[in-house]
Amino acid sequence: MQETSQRRRKMRELAATEVARLWEDNADAWARQARLGVDVFRDLLNTPAFLALLPPIAGLRGLDVGCGEGANTRHLAGLGAKMSAVDIAPTFVRYAQASEACDPLGIDYAIGDAMQLPFDDGAFEFVTAFMSLMDMPDPGRALREIRRVLRPGGFVQFSILHPCFVPPRRRVLRNRKGKARAIEIGDYFESTEGRVDCWWFSTLTGKERHEVAPFRTPIFHRTLSQWFDLLAAAGLVVEKLGEPTAGTAPHANHPVIEDTRVAPMSLHVRARRAGD
Ligand SMILES: C[S@@+](CC[C@H](N)C(=O)[O-])C[C@H]1O[C@@H](n2cnc3c(N)ncnc32)[C@H](O)[C@@H]1O
């Protein structure tokens, strides 16, 4: 019994090292492309919806987990929060620090693993994680760490790929005009445990895809009820959910946004420390 749990822990540690390596390999191209505005799903839909769901954060101490090149951390600092941020990939942290050096917002960036946060207990009034927790081999441990660094009464708000509508297998079914009419999904109950997906930002043209290598990202799918159980086990109580969808403005050039009229791509969760 003990041997089995030790083996599982070793496997998770191995997966964590591999995950860190994959993200470091993606980081330079990802940061460059994100800064050219290629990640329209993030910039035009997901982040605005995330910020709209946030309670007021001006004057609060916050931590952004899995900050990438720091664009979203900078939005939080722009709302008046005193931000720290961590990412497992050193290259992402370097990009974020370079922005901070050019245009200081008082953000403290560090290389760090969400599953072993380098901060004291109760150091923050809120924690955010934009599209990062579903990339981790042990999201339950990350959530426990997040709760540990939250002050009593503090909250975490995170976004993940929607477990119901972006499970391990997904295909958008389109009409003749290319408009999404349904989403075909499969393997919802399959735990992918680090399956590596290769993909480009959807706005890249075929020519551009010949010029840049695809991202290789590890996927650790969890079902909706598993996420709920992980939050409860970490001592976090859900208080608000969000499912961003394209608003009234047409986004004809961006099917990745238009498709969310049929079903959301991401799930936003706000949860508070239980028992305070
Ligand atoms: C999809 S990207 C999102 C980046 C950023 N939050 C954004 O919205 O632009 C996922 C990020 O999570 C980071 N990440 C993955 N596993 C991590 C871990 N265990 N600890 C900290 N960061 C991690 C990756 O390096 C990457 O920057």
List the main descriptive attributes of the protein structure presented here.
276 residues, alpha/beta, Rossmann fold, seven-stranded mixed β-sheet, two-stranded antiparallel sheet, 8 helices, binds S-adenosylmethionine, SAM-dependent_MTases_sf, transferase, Class I SAM-dependent methyltransferase, EC 2.1.1.-
Mean pLDDT: 93
- Which shape, going by the Cα principal axes? globular
List ligands, each type once: S-adenosylmethionine
Main beta sheet strand tally, sense and closure = 7 strands, mixed
What is the domain tally? 1
H-E string: HHEHEHEEHEEEEHEHEHE
Number of helical segments with 4 or more residues: 8
The share of residues in extended strands comes to 25-35%
Distance from first to last alpha carbon? 35 Å
Identify the strand order in the major beta sheet. Answer: 3-2-1-4-5-11-10
Helix content: 25-40%
- Number of separate strands: 11
Under CATH, the topology can be stated as Rossmann fold
CATH classification class: Alpha Beta
List the uncertain runs: none
The name of the CATH superfamily reads: Vaccinia Virus protein VP39
Which structural class do you get from the secondary structure elements?
A: alpha/beta
- CA gyration radius, whole angstroms: 18 Å
The CATH architecture name reads 3-Layer(aba) Sandwich
Pfam families: Methyltransf_11 (PF08241)
EC number: 2.1.1.-
Organism: Variovorax ginsengisoli
GO molecular function, one term: methyltransferase activity
